[in-house]
Amino acid sequence: MFIRIAKQKRGDKLYRHLQIAESFRDPAKGKAPRTRIIAQLGTLEGLGEEQVEKLIAGLQKAIGRNVESSPQLLFAQDYGHVHAVDGVWDLLGISAMLDRAGISGDASFKAAELIRMLVVNRICDPCSKLALLDWLESVCYEGKERPSYHHLLRAMDRLILVKDEAEPLIAKRMASDEEKLDLVFYDITSTYFEGDRSLVENDFRRFGYSRDGRFDKRQVVIGLVMTRAGIPLCHQVFPGNTVDKTTVAGVVKDIKKRFALGRVIFVGDRGMLSDDNLDTLLGEELGFIVAYPLRRNSYATEVIGELKKEFDRKSDTEQFHEDVREGMRFVVAFSPEIASEVKTARKERLKKAGAWIKEVQYKLANPSGKGRTPTTQGTYDRIRDYLRDHNLLGFFNVELLNGKLSVTKNKQALAWEETIDGMLMLGTTDMESPLEEIVRRYKELAEIERGWRSLKSTLMLRPVYHWTENRIRAHIFICVLALQIERWMRRKLKDISSVPRAIELLRRIKIGELEIAGKKIRIPSKSTTGQKEILERLGVQPIPVSLPQKGL
After folding, report:
1. What is the pLDDT of residues 8-22, one digit of tens each?
2. Global pTM value
């Protein structure tokens, strides 16, 4: 017996008749299968949804089944991304390292586990510490009790107290699967603050050079030391008005002392590694690779002037040459492809600038009588401002002598620019490695830039909702911990997915609570092949088929 819906069309209307039917074999037809109608229940349109539900309930009641025993989904929570990041934290054993560093102390709460929660949130769904309490309602954070806001802040206070002891322990585990910790990269950035709440005398939130272009906001400066794999080794926080190059000496001595590094090469830009800083590195028996500016630099003028004849500008391959002087090894790399691109772009910019300058000079010589009459001084200022804003001022001689305006191309500057097109000049203490290896090592400095982007975008270093110095420092430390895990995950997933994409895919795995016949069970949504591969690459346990009731 079964329910059958028979369709009948009358004019423009379609009627669906609900019938109870059964199949049978007709002896008169050689036992061929036939269908007979047992009962006509009416049309679906006439009965309506409510009557159909009553029919279903009545049939279930007839066999003694409680209608309320039908499975009901009570709620569902995001789970996959939290499971993955939490699993990576356990795999790396970071809680144990924080405990070893002394974060627990005499606290009555598990400070390391609260820091874990803050870091997991920072990677999965970054928000304020107060908003995290609401976030916990939307995710299944297995086996973790809901903390109080007060305990989160106290955990942060304890974290910053053990920073010096914890960083080497965590960095050693993070870098344990690298070939060798023989190369470190250093760079700094800044993060600004909204408002001036609770400023105190000698507050380290100060006005300074903003990498975000927010010179109207107070800021702090963050120095980050990374391994060649792009994983943070340690970080320092400085007052907002700190000059880049003044941070290096302290950072070098710090990593030498706390990380027991052997023969290490320190990589940075020339603006960061001043002569005094290079002397500091040598004094600490650390080597370095430093990029030199190619304009208005005596070393670049001498070295490239000597080597420029060695480069074959008609070749399509990248070339490398060296010049050793004053105990320093200078390596110059030349890329014909980059040289061609830079030269073409510069010619286009110079062409547009030349046309604009001619138009402005014509208006000065032939005033139209409409609007303000251009003056020589005003035109001179306009041309200089235009060239400055388009980074072309060095290619022109703009002069105002005896009331006459003169604009000519700086042939010497243009000739030098064509000479250095496609070139990179490095100075290093490494006298043995191949030239290509020296250049490759320096180019790995770009990895730290990717780290800054992750820190400020996906991990949302800013806005900072804290205003006391220790809490600000603790917030930055939590963000760096999140960056360490994010960079570690990136290495594991590099050929299948980015970390943000992986987090988004795993977020789709939900944990639902079902009620069946008065009993509640929790089951996850089915994982896709891609989700399973991500978890496998990270070394995290697959999503279990079911979860115990405790902990929701």
Report:
1. 888 888 888 888 888
2. 0.77
